[in-house]
Specification:
The structure is a homodimer.
Chain A: E1 3-9, E2 13-18, H1 23-29, E3 48-53, H2 61-66, H3 69-73, E4 76-78, E5 88-91, H4 99-104, E6 118-124, H5 136-148, E7 154-155, H6 157-169, E8 173-179, E9 182-187, E10 194-200, E11 204-211, E12 217-224, H7 234-241, H8 245-269, E13 277-284, H9 286-293, H10 298-301, E14 313-316, H11 317-320, E15 329-332, H12 342-351, E16 360-364, E17 369-375, E18 378-384, E19 405-412, E20 415-420, E21 428-429, H13 431-443, E22 460-463, E23 466-472, E24 484-487, H14 488-511, E25 521-525, H15 527-531, H16 534-539, E26 551-555, H17 557-567, H18 569-581, E27 582-584, H19 593-600, H20 610-615
Helix pairs in contact in A: 12-17, 12-18, 14-19, 17-18
């Protein structure tokens, strides 16, 4: 039997596929996690892919149903229905990938010319003698001046403390890393300069190790934010920190330790040393930002909600206990408001560009959700407390996106089809699965518009005080140890979460006098946002009912923005400019907020009651 | 009986003196430690004083013997021979004061217009609201700009961390302390800005708390350098620090802790807070400087003896663990060479001025002695390892200048007259006493030119392996518990020490082609140097045989220089200029060094053998 070489992008993985093997089967065989809810029958449409090069079998009826004629022309196929007829290249959209696999794509390259803040210089020094015993620092600065016409007269004290022994061991030749007239690190010549970009989330810390000279991302990893033991959301974290200075310092040290470990792991992966990290950029919500920087957070949570600082700041990494190159700085991108942090700045930095003239909503869904409306170069921003329900908290069988979590779910004829992470036996349900469940239960009529569960549905049962819908029954499948359910209480939590998000969007639209239809593009950033099924999010009224092609799920755009600022000084300036131009709307200040919120809590596509708009 | 009010300067103490009470008796009664070796008989001439205002009894025969006619005209008297006949003011030269009292004079004012590097600004802020929730930092910087036309955009992260709660507790008004475009501290308005000057010696740390706005010294104190447990001199300190990074850090932390304690004690004395110390200047020899700054010291002690850094550096005090105002800097004055540190720079800064056209020797005697020859605007500098003998180390009965130490000593008819610190029973002999003993033993013929002790002298006895001269016999006086002696071995140690110092002076003279007679002024700095009897130092050949009026004992000039640099940015620039112009001579590099050293080890006035000079 003929076999063909197939490349799967953007993973960069390839394998040989027999002519009688579907591309889905081939992908699964070589370890690529493509979602397949219906088990390859062609009816769930979750294994979408695009044939970028090469040819395959003719589209089946299922595929003609799944795609428009134009899409078929562009090579869009269902992996379970396609058999190769030549070598080829397949593009997999993030939505077709399981969580594990999607994380691998997050370290994708950012495309901007490297223009780092730290410049490396090769310096060759003369050897000291009894008749020329000038100080090592003076010798180095003189050589920098003579050899590179660089009149810098400042060496970081930490870098200076390493200079004398290192110059002697490197035989009086070195790399001097210079930032704004200050020598911040030394290395042997030649040696590369590394940078670290960090997205410090309330629950997750993502790190990217970057080669500053090429701009290439060498390694990327995510770890849990260890502060989570002291409060799962921002408010409880702030409340803990304000109890005493020692508790605030404790939270700070936990994160510093985690970032140091992350840096060390990334460097191990890239076969590099943390001492070669000469620059770092960090983004996070304002509370995470303040806690890391050792800034007070009490005034963040009390009206009128004031950050200690909003503009970009540079802190010596060593001041915080971060173990990078001795004189490296940590650049913190500017915050927007007490509840819209530098992470949202980074999202805007990563997604905005001068060519974009479309009216755009950029939204980063998390325990706190930030929303911006970009229209004719002007940005209006707000934030809403969406809570941690979509991260699995306060949901009976909720869990993080980890092995065994249900991440995709469909209800057909009161039967539940689902896909778990790693295809492991189901042990719980993560954010994207929870959203799917809500939507599917609503569409199947199990949940009413108000969110009430239909107690007559055969999969609905009473447990303790509440009704619950059984997604996976006890021992229904091999390996499943206990039932996985969605309770009436879960539904209430999720209604509050989705209402908060929808209200945020609505307030921005109203502030600009717009209806949904004016939105030409919706950029959904963040881990959760990139895994959700947008159609389901529309179905429950969390996102505006717009054509699906207007939505872009851009993954960890905050991390991408942080990397852009890391490798480009222009991007840092651009970030400051973006923030300076933003009009921030405090939800608590908006008349009619409560009414909008209440309406937004109903399931189904969001419709503003007529009387309402006038009231605003 | 009539009484008169007498002011004693520079102590600023005053008291009433009866017409039948000598000024010496009056001074002692009110607690002023004037030296009196002969017990008020008028023949030891140690209680010299100058009547600056008012009148006193006619000069006695003893006084006419002690002073020239001119001096008598100028009011010079012996305190034990003078009785007041009106209110008056008395000037006490440092040499007449006991050690304890002299320390009190070290906090004397420095005379330069305050021109501090840190400027205080009063800032009044508007109160935030839901419609104006800009960050506290932005509000502050904007107000600084509007109210003082100050475009600074940088707040130290430590200062920033205090800003939000403090602004709220100070009702939105504060003092912002600004240094080179950076806000480094906040205080309530009004509040004073303090500075700390530190002279970090190998054995002693002197601290001065200064009001930066007035330039006034508020408090001064000296403490032992706690590193002394890890090596009494520079070389053993370096040797300990190079054993491991942990040991170097240990030495660093010891000094940081001591400076923090010193700062805290000084502030307690001045009823101030360490958090109001917004600037600090530190001087010390290069090894002490490097150890404090966390710089490597190994290369200091190995030929070709290279400092890690020589130019002035500014380090965030918090980086070193110094607990001043959060963003305060520590300014380290420039070093001159591996063995001529910023303390000598400070001595030069304090003693040089543009009007001084005389050929001057400036010498700072310590375990390491630095010497400079200033001639026609040019400075030649060297350093010599004089060792710790003059600080009491390696001397059998040697001790620090503390209560019960013999500090002045005379031998008359083979009887020993002496004065102890605090007039306490003698328990040992400190530097100035040791020098006196050497000279008096030599002048009395007990020591030969080569330093050999006359075993026939009745006070000389054999003990263990060595001869020793009994200064104070067992139970010779009330309270004395054991004999105090100078051993033959002590004499050898002291010969090495004084030879090193004399060689340093000699090398500089020879480098300029000068003989002793060319020196118009000798400035003797340092604690030990200000207590010595210059005539005795000349007698043993440690100092050149010049008329006594050419010598100036200026006390802790390093501390004075540090204070000058603390209160004046011009003085910092001047220090850098001084160092840039210095020609440093490495003794190890001087031909004929050993021969000069050997000749300088003889007792008696130093005479260069004729054949020698040609050899250089």
């Amino acid at each position: 039997m003929e076999t063909y070489k197939i490349n799967f992008e953007p993973l960069g993985l390839s394998g040989r596929c027999r002519a009688d093997e579907s591309l889905l089967a081939c992908a699964h065989r070589i370890g690529i996690g493509i979602i397949s809810l219906c088990g390859g029958k062609g009816n769930c449409q979750s294994c979408r892919m695009q044939l970028l090069e090469g040819t395959a079998s003719k589209p089946t009826a299922s595929e003609l149903k799944a795609y428009s004629r134009q899409e078929i022309k562009e090579g869009w196929r269902l992996a379970c229905q396609s058999y190769p007829t030549s070598d080829g290249k397949v593009g997999l959209p993030p939505t077709s990938l399981t969580t594990t696999q999607r994380v691998q794509t997050e370290g994708q390259e950012v495309t901007v010319s490297p223009e780092p803040v730290v410049t490396p210089y090769q310096v060759k020094l003369s050897t000291p003698s009894l008749t020329d015993a000038q100080a090592d620092a003076a010798r180095l600065l003189k050589a920098l001046n003579h050899q590179h016409r660089l009149s810098c007269d400042n060496i970081d004290i930490g870098a200076l403390s390493q200079l004398s022994p290192k110059l002697r061991s490197w035989n009086w030749q070195c790399r001097a890393s210079v930032r704004e007239g200050e020598v911040i690190a030394f290395g042997p010549w030649p040696s590369r300069q590394l940078g670290l970009a960090v997205d410090l989330g309330t629950s997750k810390i993502s790190g990217y190790l970057v080669d500053l000279d090429s701009g290439q991302t060498l390694a990327a990893q995510g770890v849990s934010n260890p502060q989570i033991s002291y409060g799962e959301d921002i408010i409880s974290r702030i409340s803990y920190a304000t109890k005493s200075a020692a508790k605030a310092t404790q939270l700070q040290k936990l994160v510093v330790k985690a970032i140091n470990q992350l840096a060390s792991d990334l460097c191990a992966e890239a076969k590099a040393k943390v001492g070669d990290i000469v620059d770092a950029v960090l983004v996070g919500n304002t509370a995470m930002h303040h806690l890391l920087a050792g800034l007070p957070v009490k005034q963040l949570a009390l009206a009128p909600f004031v950050p200690a600082v909003s503009r970009a700041i540079d802190i010596k990494a060593s001041h915080l206990g971060l173990k990078f190159a001795p004189g490296a700085y940590l650049h913190l991108l500017p915050n927007i408001a007490a509840f819209v942090g530098a992470d949202h700045t980074a999202v805007l930095l990563a997604t905005l560009n001068d060519e974009n003239k479309e009216t755009t909503i950029a939204i980063d869904i998390g325990t706190n959700t930030e929303v911006s409306l970009i229209d004719k170069g002007k940005i209006t921003t707000t934030s809403c407390a969406s809570g941690p329900a979509f991260e699995g908290w306060h949901i009976k069988d909720g869990m993080r996106a980890a092995s065994g979590a249900i991440e995709r779910l469909r209800i057909v004829d009161n039967k539940v089809q689902y896909q778990t992470i790693d295809d492991a036996p189901a042990i719980g349900i993560c954010g994207s699965g929870i959203l799917d469940a809500m939507a599917q239960l609503y569409l199947a009529g199990v949940l009413g518009e108000g969110g009430k569960m239909d107690e007559k549905n055969p999969r609905v049962r009473a447990s303790d005080k509440h009704l619950e819908f059984v997604l996976v029954g006890e021992k229904e499948k091999k390996g499943v140890r206990r039932a996985i359910v969605i309770t009436q209480q879960d539904v209430r939590e999720l209604q509050l979460a989705k209402a908060a998000i929808r209200t945020g969007i609505q307030v921005l639209l109203e502030a600009n006098g717009y209806g949904d239809e004016k939105i030409q593009k919706v950029i959904i950033a963040g881990a959760f946002g990139s895994y959700i099924d947008v159609a389901n999010a529309i179905a429950i009224g969390m996102l505006p009912a717009l054509p699906l092609e207007r939505f872009q799920q851009v993954g960890n755009a905050a991390g991408t923005g942080a990397r852009l600022a890391l490798i480009s000084r222009s991007k840092r300036a651009a970030a400051q400019k973006i923030v300076s131009g933003i009009k921030y709307i405090e939800l608590a200040n908006v008349p009619g907020f409560n009414q909008t919120f209440m309406q937004a809590s109903y399931l189904g596509r969001f419709r503003l009651k007529e009387g309402k708009r006038k009231g605003v």
